[in-house]
Specification:
This protein is an alpha/beta fold and 181 residues long. It contains 9 helices and 7 strands, in the order H-H-E-H-E-H-H-H-H-E-H-H-E-E-E-E.
Amino acid sequence: MNTIERLDKLKEMFKDNDFQSNKGISNQIGVYIFAYPPKDQMMIDSFVELLKNEKQFNIVDYDLYSFFLKKCEEKRIINQIPVLEERKGSEFVLDQLSKIATPESFVNYMAEREYNKGDIILITGVGKVNPFMRVHAILEHAQNRFVNIPIVVMYPGKYDGQELHLFNKFNANHYRSFNLV
């Protein structure tokens, strides 16, 4: 099945009342991974924009990259990053930026909103924010916070039920999510 066919199935799943209510998954938290070939990123971005106009469900899109940039702007460091990297090196910048946009801060940001029936949390921008934020760490923090709302991660790479493979290269253990389509 190609990516377009899988996206069509995903949209149909989103319309299902049981999916929207997190029912039928053995009382586990509804965290799902929609893995796709990284080369299809533009198609995924277009699809997400179309989903936002749906009437049978409500997509609440959390773009990790936008969140990351917002945190850097709040700390007033966004323009200093290239200078810091030149002076102190990439490892230093990675370490410092990882402290600013933490998995906990992202999950807390998501939790500020009040959710309604039919809402589906969509986490996007996963590849754009690597290595500063890691989706498996975010999901670890989110798993008990959003019991009645499904969380779907649009993931550029593969998920085999045990490991996430970002861009089909970088591996991270993660076994608490369900593969979608």
